[in-house]
Design goal:
Length: 418
Amino acid sequence: MPEQRQNSKAWLPAIPGRPIVCALILFAGINIALSAIKPNLQVKPTELPVRLSWEWWRTKSYLSEPKAPDVVVMGSSLMMIPTSLIDADFLNKNIDAVKHPHSVFLERKLQDAGAPKGISCFNFALPGAMISDQYFTAHSLFSGERAPKVILLGLTLRDFIDSGVDSATSTPTYQFFRHFDKTNDVKHLLTVTPQAAAEAFYNNINYLSDKRLELQTYFSKPINKVGNDALAGLPVSKFNAKDTEEKGDGNILGNAAVTEGNFILPPHKVIPWKDNTREYKKRFASANEKLFQNQVAFLDKLLADAKANGVKVVVANMPLTEKNMSLMPKGMYQKYMDEMNARAQRGDFSLIDLNSQWVFHDADFQDTAHLNATGGAKFMDLVAISLSKNEPVRRALAMYSQAGARTQTASSTEQAAF
């Protein structure tokens, strides 16, 4: 009988790569067990152990607002940078772009046009953002009581065809907002490339990979508590990790860590012109038709979400230099404008077309695409005027009619005279 038991186990050493097979079995077992115990494990995305990003800071600020902002400014760095620069000039003081998520300039302009005192305009534009990134942001945050009244969305062709973006899943914004676990209804738009499809398949079968940051955060809390209790009373190290971070020079497009103090914008700073032609030649390397159609589909998803939440959408077609326009794939800008005009005509959004060489000149830009503070103020002035004349926006923002108020006052005066 002992000899029979010994023979029954004799096959184990004969398995080639036995440690690897056992490890794979153990790995699969842990995957299955955790996916069964915590199938929808979620933690606050702002608590995840990730390198702090613009997405992280803006989300943290947005969720910390006492109520949903009235207007959310969205777009890429073309919208983000001038919005921040304007406020430094307007307030005549240094502002920290990381800790300053509002557009005070736009708030004041709308108040002057009749908006209630205390109107809030939040700057959620993100560097390099695609249309899909705008969707992930809005879909994750702008619903229910957290939905704004108006989205001001700055767009241009680059947001649809950037050759540096393979798919919607390859951007930092997607990698951050996917942890909100609200991408199920656009899964078909996330797998347009073989690489994206393979990654999605791998994450679907590998719970440990897909939920690695959530698991790390979930299990680190009790472990950290035990560690902190055990180390209580020991001398505290004077080492500060922040001292080792790369310091910024205020350039939002730079590679410095996105931390407080790294993006200080002084008022009335003269920013020298930078020729970024080489960068945009790469971005416009091809017409990227497949990506273009994919991003148009994300735009429609964004608009459907906004409509469902009662949010008015205003699209500002961003100003560009003639040089930047000349780098675009032939016919693609007109195709982009055709898509924008078609949606504006059917009432999906209000369109403000501000890409005019008659209005904006090279002196209004800091490179071939980004407005400087002077150009930004001109841009936001025109946007505020357009918003103030947009009746659905006026109703959404409860903007009183100054002319109507004057008429009513005059009428009351006349009645009192009689």
